[in-house]
Amino acid sequence: MVLLRTLLCASGLVLASALCWAEQGEAQVFPVTVSERLAACVAAEDNEPAHAIALADSVLAEGVALSSLQRAEALGCRAWSNVTLGASESARRDAHSLRSLVQQLPRDAERVRLTRRAGGILHRAGDRVGAVDLYAQAVSEAEAQGLEAERIPLLVNLGVLHSEFEEHERARVNYEQALSLMDRLGDHRHEAPVRYNLGLNLAGQRRFAEAVPQLQRTLELVRSTGVGGPMQEMSVSIALANALQQTGAAQEARQLIDRVRAMDLPVRDLGTRMQLASIEASQLADAGDPAAALALLAPFDASELGHIQHWSVLRQRVSLLEQLGRFKEAAEVQRSINEIRETYLRSQNHERLAALETHLRDREQRLELERLQVAAQEQELRLAANARTQLALAVGAGLLLTLGIAVLIWQRRMNRRLDRAARTDPLTGLANRRDMAERLRAVSLANARAALLLIDIDLFKRINDQHGHDVGDDVLVAFARRLQTIAGESTTVARWGGEEFLLLVEQATRDSASELAERLRLELAAPIEAGTGRVQAHVSIGYANLPLAGARGAEAWQYSLQMADSALYLAKAAGRDAWVGYWLDRPILDWPVEKLSRDPRLARSLGLLVASSSRPLREPLTAVG
Question: Are 11 and 42 a contacting pair, CB within 8 Å?
Fold first, then answer.
C-alpha cells in the first residue's frame, strides 16, 4: 500500500531552515514556510505518521492565511497518516472534508490528483464505495482536461480493488494496461507501484514464479530511485521474500529477511509484522517443525488484519493444522475462512467498479474511432491529391492520351483495392471496426429492426501464453470462419478488436437473438486444429436490440453497443461460456435511452430493462410486464 500512496499524493522533499515545535515534551524541528512543512509532511506520512500529523496540524493552525490548495494538501497528509496509524474514523472525516474542499479548486491537474488522493484514503480506510465514486470523478475530470497520463494511476487503483474482490485476472489486465500505457506515453514515473501491485496480485493467485521477477524489478527501482524510502524497501523485500519462499528459494528469502531486520526500522503496521511471521513460519514448516510454526502465528489476532491478509493467515493455519493431523481444528478454521469471504464479497459494490471500468473501455473505443476517422480523412486527402495529379497529366499530355487512360484505369483499381483494404481486418478477412461502424450508422438511420451480438473469446491470453501467438492467430481465423458459417449471409460479421467480434443481425427478434447466441456458444466451443494440436476455447456473448426504443439518429447504434457490452460483462461475471441479452422494444417515459444505456444497473433495479441469459446471473433481474 505504500507504493500506492505515491500515486495518490504529492511527491518531493524540500529541505529548508527550521523553527522549533514542541510535542509531547520533545523539541521537534519544523520547516518555517507552509510549503516546506507540507513537503515534509508528505515525506513523513508513511515512515513517521505521528510526526506528519503534527506537521499537518501546524499548517492547519494558520487558519485563513492558507490557500484552498494548501488546506487540501494538509488535510490529505493528516488523513493518510491517520490511516497509517490505524485511526480510520479520523482519516475518513478528513477525507470527506478534503472532498468538499477540492470542489473549490480550479479544474486542473492538481484537482484531479487531490480527488484521487481522497479516494485512496477512503479505500485504505475501508470505504470502497466512496473510493470508487471519487475515482470515477477523477477520471471524468482528467478526460475533460485531456490528462491521458492520469489513467495510469487510476488503472492501478482499479487493479487493487479487483484484487480485493478476488478478481485477480481483471486486476492483472489493469496492471498490464498501465504498463502498456506507460510505454505508449513514455511516462515511467509509476513503474515501481505498477509492478509491485502486479507482483502482489500474481502472488495472490499463488503464481509465485511469475511474481518473483516483477517484485525483483520493483526492488531494483526502489533502491535506485529511493522512491518510498526505507519503509518501501522493507515492504517490497518482505513481499519478494514470501514469493521466493513459496518457490523453494528459501536461502534467498532468508537473506532478504535478514537484511530487513538489519534495517532496524520501526514496524508499526500489524500487517507487516504478520508478513514477517508468516515467512518465518513457512521456513519452520519446511524444516519439519509445523508445531513451532503454528506457535509463531498464535499471538496474532488475524481479525485485525485486512480481509485479503486475514484469509491468507487463516489458510496458512489450516495447512499447519493438517500437517499436525489436527483435522477437526483445520476444518473449523476453513469454515471461518468461507464465512468471512462470503460476507466480504457480498458486501462489496461490484457494479460500481464494473461501471467505472466500462467507462474506461468506452473511452478507449472512442479514441480508436477518432483515430480511424483521422485515418479516413487522410486517405480522402490522398485520393483527392491523386485525382488532381491525374487531371494535370491528362491536360499536359494530350499526345500520351492512351497511356494516360491506362494509368487512370490502373489508379482506380488501386484505389478500390486500398478502400477494400481499409475496410477489412488483415488477419481474419472480416469487416474491420471502421467498416462495421459505417454499416451500424446506416442501420440506425434506417430505423430497421436488428440486433447487435458482441462476442469475446474467454481467457484468450492464456491460449497465447500456453501455445504461442501463432496458434492464437489460428484460433482467431477459425472463429471468424465459423461465425460467418453459423450466422449466414444476411448477417454482417466484424472483428471489433483483439479477441472481440461483433455481429449485426437484421430483422431480428428477442427470441431469434437468444437462439443465435446459444447456437454460437455451443458450436464455437468445438475444438480447433492448430499447429501444436487441438485447442478448445469458449465464448461469452452480450447482445441488445438495434435501435433501442427511443433512440434516433446516426449514432443510435452506440447506445445498443453499450448495452451489449454491459450484457457481455454480466456473462463474464456469471462464469464465462454464457450469454446475456437486453431487449428494450418500447420507450420508457421520463427515462431517455441515453441514461438507460449509461447505467443499466440502475435501470434493472427500477424494472425498466429485461435481461435474458443462458445461466443464472449474480443479481436478481426484474422483468418488464
Answer: yes
Q: In this structure, what DSSP letter does residue 602 have?
A: H
Taking the C-alpha atoms of residue 56 and residue 33, their distance in angstroms, rounded to an integer, is 12
Strands 26-31 and 528-530: unpaired
How many of the other CB atoms lie within 10 Å of CB of 485?
Answer: 10
Element counts in the chain: helices (H) and strands (E): 26, 10
The owner of cell 475444438 is 527
End-to-end CA distance of the chain: 48
Q: Quote the CA–CA distance of 515 and 21 in Å, as a whole number.
A: 75
Q: What is the pLDDT of residues 406-457, one digit of tens each?
A: 556 556 665 565 556 678 999 999 999 999 999 999 888 887 789 999 999 9
C-alpha cell of residue 265:
526500522
Phi-psi bin for 492: left (phi > 0), alpha (psi -120 to 50), beta? beta
- Where does residue 345 rank: exposed (0-12), middle (13-18), buried (19+ CB within 10 A)? middle
Short-list 472, 516, 523, 522, CA closest to 490: 516
At 91 the pLDDT is 87
CB burial of residue 386 (10 Å; 0-12, 13-18, 19+): middle
User: β-strand 539-546 against 579-582: which pairing, if any?
Assistant: parallel
Distance CA 88, CA 80 (A): 9
Helix ranges (DSSP H) in 125-228: 128-144, 151-164, 168-185, 191-204, 208-225
Is the N-terminal amide bond of 547 cis, ω within 30° of 0?
yes
SS3 490: coil
Retrieve residue 170's grid coordinates.
481483471
CA gap 517, 334 in Å, rounded? 40
Return the HEC string of 42-63. Answer: HHHCCCCHHHHHHHHHHHHCCH
Q: How many angstroms separate the CA atoms of 581 and 122, rounded?
A: 35
Read off the pTM. 0.44
